[in-house]
Amino acid sequence: MTGLGAISLGTLVLAALLVGVSKTAVSGVGALSVALFAAVLPAKESTGALLPLLLVGDVPAVRAYRRHADWRALLRLLPSVAAGIVLGVAFVARADDTTVRRTIGALLLTMVLHHLWQRARERRVTSPHLPSPHPPSPHPRALLFGLVAGFATMVANAGGPAMSLYLLTSGFSVLGFLGTGAWFFLIVNAVKLPFSAGLGLIAPGALALDAALAPAVIAGAALGRSCVQRIDQALFARLVLAFTALSSLNLLI
After folding, report:
1. For this UniProt entry, which segments traverse the membrane (predicted)?
2. Per-residue pLDDT tens for 82-94?
3. Could you tell me the residue ranges of all domains in the chain?
């Protein structure tokens, strides 16, 4: 912490605040937190430093929305997520810091582009001049999204966009979305913790930084929960996508 300047510390505080908001209101904001951490800290160190803060944010999210989880959807996802995490562990163990940094940027940018494509596709298929599409089978989708989410969350703590797209396209209500996502990430982040420690990603200095940033996560979670019913989700989502895309390009350069 003593080696960080005021701007860097302010950036990390903002990222921690957005972690809390992402857990209780707009999950897409989590991708921006990943990009901000990777912009301030070395790429591998950033993933290890961010993970305990994600777990801090998972606790109030589960407390707030625990009764709204769809456990059948979770059970469909978890096997493929576990496989994705194992693939992510193998990748992180062999990749250098530059590769991890660029992978974080590529994953975030890919998620943004996929989200925009999905939105455009939904607008087309819901046109009154086109027939309604048949809903896709949940099991192949769970396999695909689970693998992507597991790999992305292990490599870059960036499984949120994949999970959000899965829940959105599965027709969850707002509370069902938040409750299922809260339990999903509490379980997955707890599973990732020993892997990250074994890979040497979580350093004592990072834990000290996390302790200082944890109050910002709690404040963000409280802010998100108070605003979730009143926030302009469409405008906020567009801003998050724009800032995430810019941050992703910065990581790729």
Report:
1. 73-93, 142-159, 165-187, 199-223, 235-252
2. 999 999 999 988 8
3. 6-252
